[in-house]
Amino acid sequence: MHLPETVAALSLFLGLPWLIFHYITRWKTAATLTTGDERTIEALYDLARRLDDRVRTVERIVTADNPNWREIASDAPERAVEDRNETSRRIK
């Protein structure tokens, strides 16, 4: 007769804490990065740094060649069409 009360008490005092601690443990282990993840992040960071250095080098070279290239590049499509129209007017 006391079987349902016993089962309820065991599941309340043993089963529920076990379930809570089980998922807390899984949550903590899933939140960490593996060593492979850390290596991948470091490799991506190095690649991004090298690409940034290359872009800066190209920008320095282009700036040395044409100091106004940023102004030209910022509105390149409109300006290119305007420049072509002016050139064709001069030729005629």
Break the fold down into its secondary structure elements and pairings.
Elements: H1 3-30, H2 35-65, H3 69-74, H4 76-91
Task: Describe what you observe in this structure.
Helix content is 88%, strand content 0%. The protein is rod-shaped and about 90 Å long. It has 92 residues and is mostly helical. It has helices at residues 3-30, 35-65, 69-74, 76-91. It folds into 2 domains: 1-32; 33-92, no CATH class. The mean pLDDT is 82.
Task: Characterize the overall form.
Answer: rod-shaped
Question: Average pLDDT across residues?
Answer: 82
Question: How is the main sheet built?
Answer: none
Please tally the β strands and state the result.
0
- CA-CA gap between termini: 109 Å
Radius of gyration from the alpha-carbon trace, in angstroms: 33 Å
Helix and strand pattern:
HHHH
Identify low-pLDDT runs.
Answer: none
Portion in beta strands: under 5%
Task: Record keyword descriptors for this entry.
single chain, 92 residues, mainly alpha, 4 helices, 0% strand, rod-shaped
